[in-house]
Amino acid sequence: MTMTRKPQQQGSAESSETLRWFAGVPIGTNPLILMDLGMVLAILWAGSFVFLIFLQLLFGKTLNRIQISAAVGFASFLALFIIGAFLVISFLIFQNRYVALFRFDSEGVFCESIRKGPGSFRESMHWRPFPIEPVLNAAKSVTRMVPWGRIHTLEPAAGLQVIFLKGTKKTLMRIYCPDQNTFEQALAFGRARLFDRFSGEGNSSASIDDEGADKFD
Fold first, then answer.
1. If 194 and its partner were Cys, which of 26, 127, 185, 207 is the partner (CB 3.0–4.6 Å)?
2. Which alpha helices (H) appear in 31-116, and where do they start and end?
3. Residue 147 DSSP label
4. Where do the TM regions start and end (predicted)?
5. pLDDT tens string 60-74
6. CA angle, corner 185, sides to 128 and 17, nearest 5?
7. For residue 147, what are the CA distances in angstroms to 17, 169, 178?
8. Residue 163: is it exposed, middle or buried by C-beta count within 10 angstroms (0-12/13-18/19+)?
9. Vertex 2: Cα angle to 93 and 165 (nearest 5)
10. pLDDT tens-digit profile of 42-101?
């Protein structure tokens, strides 16, 4: 079982139900990470090109084709260097995956990103989250927690088995689910929490976003 539930305690004013699961998260073949990388590369390329042109105009006062070509070449080299570093880190160091532990409880959403030890490349060649054995003693990990009070909407991407936790202005966290059953249970849990929160605040506005559900199908 990738998910565990703790039943509501007797006399508790709030449900202590908890959802908890591990998921293998691809890196170099992850569409979301690749889109992020593409945006970073575009900004980096454009920024370095404009900066070099600005320096040339500031100190050289003139601009010719050779100088423009040099700026293009440097910006392209920098982008290729970033791509190469990404490939080395993704496939050689991390073997194209890391382990994510997620927990939904009454306080909010907890995530622990764990580096997995050496293994077979075959088990990690996926493009979306996949089932993986639990990591009980993590040597290196990064933890993060988002309280329900900061979450404004849930945006599901069923085709990727990912749920985006949205704040008022940005995505707060990506929830990776290893299978469809986990995806549906996590989505239902989050919807129930947000419904209780918005109902308690007397806010009748929709807090669940279904428009993105089939965005990546």
1. 207
2. 31-55, 65-87
3. E
4. 37-59, 71-94
5. 878 889 999 999 999
6. 130
7. 16, 16, 23
8. buried
9. 75
10. 999 999 999 999 998 988 878 889 999 999 999 999 999 999 999 999 999 999 999 999
